[in-house]
Recover the amino acids of this structure.
């Protein structure tokens, strides 16, 4: 009988609830423990998802020898210290995106993972969707020819609260780090490291970027346009345009259930990938596979991709005038 991995969760917020609800589709893992500085919230979360343990401190969870993996679901300014704490305790980590606020922090985190010989992966859940796997296969097949352009966006209309997570710089506020990681990741996954970046942002009075545009240019002749926003609800489209046609990840592209190929000849082919759950199950399944194989990083979402994402995001923010105290 295969091992069932006990997962401890740090932070019982909205995304933790979405993650915990996917365990019913992954029998090799279970929600074992939850840690929150609010003991009442931890207890309620444990009751909802059938967790065996709940803790009012992160250290208590990390001292539990039964915890096989820690999922960090707190706001991104806290990822750095919490990930380092987990790694120092020898606990494998799946940390929500963005992995940290900047490249300096991400580099320290990946270095610590190597030093402690402990698994660490950024929770870029879109990477593991069947639609994304199919898209990469289609690109490799050459069906749309040479890629010349990519477009991806992620915008929504958030509550303009200066003290809230989206606008407060102490909480890592701003569109780029909140949702801009999605289209940026997509461009980097498909096209790799850009040769040139042009970016600009519209800033709130708090200094957070409310909308950020970026153009990533490549010596191959390809260009990626990515958009993120916390003040407007964008289409959430994903398009890859080549010399022979285009690939469309149907809305919302970051968790798409359908891929469409439209060739210049007029031929249209659709591929459907209905989800069993909310989509987090694909990421969890991959982490389980990594742990079963004794891997220290994920082949599909390696440390090198997290470092590239942080480096690219830093430059986009620099050009847009977005600064955090940690920079």
């Amino acid at each position: 009988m295969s091992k069932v991995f006990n997962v401890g969760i740090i932070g019982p917020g909205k995304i933790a609830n979405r993650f915990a609800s996917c365990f019913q589709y992954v029998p090799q893992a279970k929600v074992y423990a939850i840690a929150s500085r609010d003991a009442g919230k931890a207890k309620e979360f444990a009751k909802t998802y059938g967790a065996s343990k709940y803790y009012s401190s992160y250290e208590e969870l990390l001292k539990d020898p039964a915890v096989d993996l820690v999922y960090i679901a707190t706001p991104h300014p806290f990822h750095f210290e919490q990930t380092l704490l987990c790694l120092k305790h020898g606990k494998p980590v799946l940390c929500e995106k963005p992995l940290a606020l900047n490249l300096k922090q991400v580099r320290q985190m990946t270095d610590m993972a190597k030093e402690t010989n402990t698994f660490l992966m950024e929770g870029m859940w879109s990477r593991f969707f069947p639609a994304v796997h199919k898209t990469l296969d289609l690109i490799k097949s050459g069906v749309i020819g040479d890629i010349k352009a990519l477009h991806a966006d992620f915008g929504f209309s958030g509550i303009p609260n200066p003290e809230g997570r989206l606008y407060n710089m102490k909480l890592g506020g701003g569109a780029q780090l909140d949702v801009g990681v999605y289209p940026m990741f997509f461009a980097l996954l498909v096209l790799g490291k850009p040769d040139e970046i042009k970016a600009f942002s519209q800033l709130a009075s708090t200094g957070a970027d409310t909308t950020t545009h970026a153009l990533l240019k490549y010596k191959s002749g390809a260009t990626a346009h990515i958009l993120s926003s916390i003040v407007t609800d964008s289409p959430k489209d994903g398009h890859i345009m080549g010399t022979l046609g285009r690939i469309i990840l149907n809305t919302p592209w970051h968790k798409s259930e359908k891929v469409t190929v439209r060739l210049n000849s007029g031929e249209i082919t659709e591929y459907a990938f209905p989800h069993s759950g909310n989509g987090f199950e694909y990421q969890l399944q991959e982490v389980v596979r990594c742990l079963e194989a004794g891997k220290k990083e994920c082949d599909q979402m390696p440390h090198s991709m997290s470092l590239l994402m942080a480096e690219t995001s830093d430059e986009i923010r620099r050009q847009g005038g977005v600064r955090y105290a940690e920079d």
Remarks:
- The chain has nine helices and 14 strands.
